[in-house]
Amino acid sequence: MDVRYINPFVNSICNTFETMCGLKVTVGKPELKTGDKPLTDVSSVIGLSGDAAGSVVLHFSFDTASKIATAFAGTKITPEHPDFADAVGELANMVAGGAKSKFEDLSISISLPNVIVGRNHNVSASKSVPRLVIPCTTDAGTFHAEVGMVLVSKTSKGIGQVSTAGANA
Amino acid sequence: MKILLVDDSRTIRNIQKNVLKQLDINNVLEAEDGVQALAIFQEQVPDLLLVDWNMPNMDGITLVRKIREINKTVPMIMCTTEAEKSRVLEAVKAGVNNYIVKPFTVESLREKISQTMTKAGTAAS
Asked: ipTM of the predicted structure?
């Protein structure tokens, strides 16, 4: 596992949830995503483009997403609340943005967040950009982060050829 | 004291509004992208803007440049996940007066707003 790619995301997850939600995150061992696991209720997806391609996905159960969104917004947010998707999406945006800033030698853009809500769904990973699944535990419940990142720039200084965060796990 | 919050996330705007309340600032305008913000700005010039970078329709850096073409002095704070030095420099060059990176603490946001208002010669309350 090449920590150059994953550690910025892990650090950004911890920083985002602690700063914005007051939640300390305990991160488990990342594993390569295989098949359709994890099944989840709420997914927030951010695309990466530019010198790197890939995605960052945060997966929550309805219960955990509600508790985390409530801690973030400072007001009760249930899945029916009009700001539910907005709050969950913004957290993923901060995670991706915080990680991206650690790759100073790469020019990476992040997409606006897309949030998928529906019981027991899966967000498939592209074969060309495998994703690592990172289990995260907080007092509000457990969630998973998935990160896949492939360098596509021929000129990325000192990194050189195309390589994949997930495939090196 | 009138402040324009520009962010496509209503959750973030609500957090910002709560901080402004703590500073006794209750006259708050809101826009969810640069296009809306520019229209509001031209109708009722605010005393300060808090601007996100990544937004649909018109992003924050474009908004800052457009506002600086028509107003050289209104204070603007960029509040964004874009934390790279190159991005901060780009924003300063475009005309922002201060910069805060998301995720932010309530205290740091309050401090940046107060700092910016003081430098601009406008009391925060």
From this structure: 0.90
